[in-house]
Amino acid sequence: MGGSGSCYALRRFPNRRRYEESSMRLIKSLAATGLFVAATIAAPAAALTTFASISPSTTDLNVTFVNGDRTDRLYTSLTEGARAASGVPVIFTLGLGIPNLQSVASTFTLDAQMPDSDVGSSGAFSLLGASGSFSIIANNAVTTGGITGTNLLSGVFNGASLNGTIGETTGAFRASTIGGATITYSSDFLDFSDVIDSDFSLALTAVTNAFAPNGNPGLAGFRATIGGQFSSEPVPAFIPEPGTWAMLILGFGMVGISARRRQKVAVA
Where are the domains of the chain? Predict the structure, then answer.
């Protein structure tokens, strides 16, 4: 049976190699035009790595949400009823092993605006389209690796969201470039020029009176405590001190001189 089957296959496809090559060309063509189903399966997104975090240094409520007629605001303030963002005390930790940037006493300021949206009377909600800025400034200048500065981490963002569940006392304010948001980080100590994707996730805890609709039908105002983490892919690089840059430039120059000398010797 096996022998006759093999003979049949040979008779059925007398030019088997040409047939297989033609089939492969067809598959490649379909893949190139997006018609080959297996080729349309998206690769999983790269995981982002947390490089910094903040935690409240007191138990005080430090963030306020105000519901406006058309625009809602989320901003830091230790004062209940305050209408302007102000800095609140936090502890900043950089998770890159850089000396003097662990557990730094700092001031965190956040100011974000988002369109007023219906949150419903129950269940989960997301207020989308938030834009604004934040800063984490050291209370005292920090020196590490020959660099002295106070801007531990700052950012400008668009496309963040406020997420929670009606009746609950915890939620989150977050943004991710993978999800379509824009985030621009800056720091006196970190270089973000090679970063491809970024995100931040700030936890809201101890929400006063729990999340609730206010009947207009947006989210009712509240006070809470905020803290969280900042991530990217790849993680940002440490900014070398000017002396280090000078040594690098000198080193590159010496490599070039050495290469030219070797070339001249080879020609001689």
Answer: 2-40, 50-239
